[in-house]
Write the C-alpha cells for this entry.
Amino acid sequence: MYRSMLFLHWKQIRHALVLMIMASFGLPLLAVGGLGTPPGLESASLEAYRFVAGFQTWLAAFPALAALTGTALALSAWNWDHQVNHVYALSLPMTRWEYTLQKMLAGMTLALLPAAAMWVGAHLATASISLPVGLQAYPNELAVRFLAAIVVSYAALFAMAAGTVKTTLAVAGVIFGFIFFGAVANDVLAGYYAYFERVHVVAAFIEWIVEGPGPFGVFAGSWTLIDV
Amino acid sequence: MCRRSALGLVAVTVALFGAAGVEARQAPSGGAATPQASSVGASTMTPEQARLLEKLDSLRPLVAEAQVALDVRIARDLEATRRAAAAAARVDTLGVGLLTVVTPTGQADIARALITEVWNEHFALIERSPTLAESIFVFEWSDARVPIHVESNARPVQFRGSTQRPRVKSAIRNAIGAALAHDLRRAGTQVGLWVSGNPLQEPNLEAIYRVVATRRSQVTRACLAGDVSACASALSLGTRRQDLAQLSEWYTPEERRALVVAWRPELMSRFDRPERTRCVEGRDHAVCDEFLTSFGSMRRDWSPLPPSVRETLLAYAVERGGPGAWERLLEDPDMEPGQALEHASGSTLPELLAGWRARLVEHRPETFEDLAPSTGLSLVWTILFAALAMRSTRWRFG
C-alpha cells in the first residue's frame, strides 16, 4: 500500500519536484559562484571575508526553498483526495489513520530527493573552490537542516490539509487572521491594558514559532555553507 | 522659530502696507475703505495710484493666509507649553549609581529596576565619570510619549511599549557606554583616539571573532593561533606608523598586493590608477609597497583590525582592572594605548592580550551548534502534526 501511495504522490508532484530537485542541487553552486580566486590574485586564501560576505546574499534562498518544497509536497499529497471527496480512502481495507500515516511517510520519502540533491550540490560547490585559511564548509549540516525544514513544513501543511478544503481554509484563515488583525487588536488593547503595551501578542507568537520551542525553530538557525 | 518670525513679519508688513493703502484710497474716494469702493472712484485717481491699489488688493489673500498660519502656530505653541507644564508635574528624577534619570512618574519603578540592573551588571565598578556627572538620561518605555524637556546634556533612552525587555536593557547599556566613551574623547586621551567608538557597548564577540578570522593579515592569523605579540601588532598597540616596516609586519608581500587589488580603481584619483595597474598587473611588489606607503601616510589606515575589535580589548581591560580601572584609564591623556590598558587593567600587556584572545576564541561561532536540538524539535513537531492529521476528522466543520 505504501508503494502505491508513493507512486500516486510522485505522479501528482513529479514535474514540480523535479524543478525543486534541480533548484536544491543548483542553489549551493550558484551561491559559491564568483567566490573563486579574484582577478589579480594567485590565491583565494586572501579573500576569507569575501567568502563569508558573498555567501550571505544567498542565505534567505535556502530556507525559502525548503519551505516551498515542503508546502508543495503537502498540498499535492491531499490534492487527489480532495478532488474525489475522500471516497478512495473509505474504499480501502484500512483505517483512516493508517491511510494518513502511509500517505505522510510517502511524502517524507519524496522529501529525501531534494535534500539529497542539496547534499550533492553543497559538496560539489565546496569542492569547486579553494577555501581560505580559517574558513570551513558545512555541506552535511546544511543538507540535514534543509531536510528537517522540508519535513516540518511538510508535516504542518499536511496536517492542515488532511481535513476538507473548508477545514484547511478555516485553519489558514484563523492563523492569518490572527496575524493581521491581532496586531491591530493589540494596539487597541494597549490603550486600555498595560500588559498589551509591554507584550505584543502577535510578535510574541511569531517569535515562539520560529525561535522558541515552536515548530519552525529549524528555520531560524544558520544556513550558511561557508563560515569560520 | 524662523518660520514663525517670517510669517509674523509678513503679516505685520502687509498689515502696515495695507493700512497705508487704505489711507491712500480714502483720500481720493471720499472715505470708501473697501477695494471695490476704491475701484468706483478709480476715475479720479492717477494711473499710478490705481496700479498701486490693485497691487495692494492682490496682497489681501496673502495677509489672510499668514494670519491663519500665525494663529495655528500660536495655538500649537500654547498647547506644547501646556503639555510641557503638565509633564513637568508628572516627571520623576532618579539617581542610580552615577546616573541621573528623568522619567514619567508612572514609569519610575520600572526605570529604576532596569537601570539598576544594567548598572550593577556592567558599570558598578566605575566610581567617577565627568560625562555621567553632567548627563541626564531621559527614560521612556511607552507608546504614549510624554514631552520631557531637559535644558542640556540630555541622553534619551526611549522605546515603544512593545520593545522587548532585553533590548531595552541593551540600549540602556549602550547609552551609558556612549556617555562614558565621551570621557575618553573629552580628556583627549591617546587611548580614546585609538578606539574612537563606544568601547563599553554590548559586544558581539562572535561577530568580532569573525572579523578577526577573516582578515587577510598574517598577524591576525598568528594572533588567533596564540601569538600575543601578533595580537598586539594586529591591534596597532605598538605603533601608529604606516611605513613599509610596519606594513611588512602586518602583511606578507602577497597580502600587501591584495590590499591594492581590493582597492578599486574607481575609488581613487586618476593619477593613482597607473601605479595601481603596475602593482596589480605587473606583480611588482616594490610598486605595491610604494603605493601603500604613500597612501598610508596621507589618507589610509592600513591597520589589520578595525576599531570595533580594539574596543573589545579596552572593555576587557576595564573589566579585568576592577574598581578604579576606568579612572586609571583617564589619568594621563598622553599615555600610549598599550600603557593605558596596562595601567587600567593592572596586568602586563601580554597577560591582558592572552586573556582577551582566550575570550575571543571561546566565542568562536559554532555555526551549526543548534542543529541537533532544532532537528530533534522538528521531529517532535512532525510527529505531533502527523498525529493531528490522523485525527483530522475532528477538524471538520461541515
Observations:
- The mean pLDDT of chain A is 84.
